[in-house]
Amino acid sequence: MKKVWSAIKAFFGFVYTYFALLVVACVFLWSAWKIATFRATQSPPGEIVIRLGHWQLEGGVRDGINEMAARYREQHPNVRIIQDAIPESTYGQWVSTQLMGGTAPDLLQVGGQLAGNIWLSYYNRYFEPLTRHVYAPNPYNQGTELQGVPLRQTYKDGMKTAYVAEMQEYMSVPLTLFGTRIFYNKTLLKKLTGLDEAPLDYREFLKVCDQIEQCTNDAGKPYIAIAGSAYHFAQWDPMMFSPVTYGCMRRADFNRDGFVGNDEMYIAFKTGMLDFTYPPLDRWLTMIREVTDHFQTGYTGLGRDEAVFLFAQQRAVFMTTGTWDAGSLVEQAEGQFDIGVMDFPLPASDDPVYGGVVEGRVYESPGVGFQFGVTRTSKHPEVALDFLLFLASQKGNEELNRCIGWIPSIKGAKIPELLQAFEPHLEGVYGNINFALGGNTSVSWGQQLDLYKVGQATKEQFADKFTKFYLANGLKDFLEQQKDWRRGIQRNDQYLAGIRGRAMLADERAAKATDPKEAEKARREAESAWVRYRAITASRQIWGELNHARQLRTIYADEAPNGGIGPYEYSPKILAKVKARLKAEAEGTAPEPDGSTDELLESVRSFTASAAEAQAAIARELERSKAQPPPAAPEAGEAANP
Hints:
This protein has 21 helices and 13 strands. By secondary structure, it is α/β, with parallel strands linked by helices.
């Protein structure tokens, strides 16, 4: 009896001592058993299970995918599609863990919630390239006008968002076209202003905002014209404010690529080509305050949810957001108020303030999103890709986006009525302002701009304080950016070595192949690899080197290049010659040659010679690469992260 009692005491003593550990162990075993049994019920014998992971928790997304999964199952009864819907805040960590642990779903939403360089390394290690499928027709487009059309050409954007330039490969299949517009409460607008539709003229829009703020609700609180937050400002700026800075390109686009980068913006300020008195930059600052003064107080410290709450509670009339929120907003407004969608207001061409800088509506590249890649750990990659092709067909894409309330990405697919206002502007202008040089410069930019946005600094105070900091400290951040670029060249060299190795091995296989088909396949593979090698070498290793050397020379010269004449501007001398020629042509006389034509021809010859020299350098590098022995294994390029 004593032995039994001693055993009982020992048992309870053990439980008491290790109680916490035992609880954890039991919970773990119970969880493992539940997961195992749950997975077993999801994948009965003989069925193929395709798991799909994404971060879209908006209303309708999961229902839409489930609906399309059910339709796919009608055609493929042995295939079951299961979703893993993960919140945005944890998706990055979750997808990293899944990929590194080899437990990733067959399909993963890509391109967001992680830095671009991280996705690049993940593409290289964990995802299947889809390039060969992109140039083949989508079998699910049979019987439509897209029958026989290569998959890439069925997309409204040519599938450009799926193309990873660093890898020269298509890595994903996008399913939705996203856009940004202004949503407004039509019921409240009618009540407060008597208008049935919101005005698209900039001045009229500001007057309506003033009128709204003069009204109060039943609780005596004034209405807010525009529900805003730091999140929403980031949507107003590129769509409405920044496009007035398009003209900065004429003075600061030194490499003539059509855009003003953060490096070119710094050089322009450093050499006196630009400052905040330059009309496009001055009007940009003016427009920011004119519009954001109608946001709620303290909006810079608020998040997305606070603004949505104001709009849903009918305390604000306008709010900008994208197609991703359309379904949720309509659902919240149902039975309470009517929702309208409008384009961003635009100043008139004769506007006394903006007439000289507004050159048109903002250009919207019809980029698509909600894109999925096929993981290399998938047991059934061909089935996973087939499901994506089903969703990317004209009929399938139309139905998927109808269920969700988004815009289809495929040509010919019908757009829901509410979202027709989101059709992108394929002609227009874009912003050319970029002060995000990194380091302390970016910190100072954000701080000073926030003070200006909330009225704690005037336009002149903001311009003076930031410009002084920018010129005094920007060079350090600029040079640090140059170091990052230099490190990128080294990574590019590693990646190029992998491409070169694959090309050389393909050449070798083509030479040794006895089967004509295998030889032709190897030759095409080699040709494709050499084209990629030459393109990356030219764009990143050679032209980039020349451009950065020119930038440093301009900065250290500390004077405006070309005598202060911008890349797309004409000197007074040239303008006088043009006027004289036009006058002479109008009068029927021809001006005497003054040698300017010869000077122009000499400039063209000089540029052509420089281009020929660069091409010769590329050819020499290519021949040198071909002369090097091939790597030991074709996987050499896979180990290098571009």
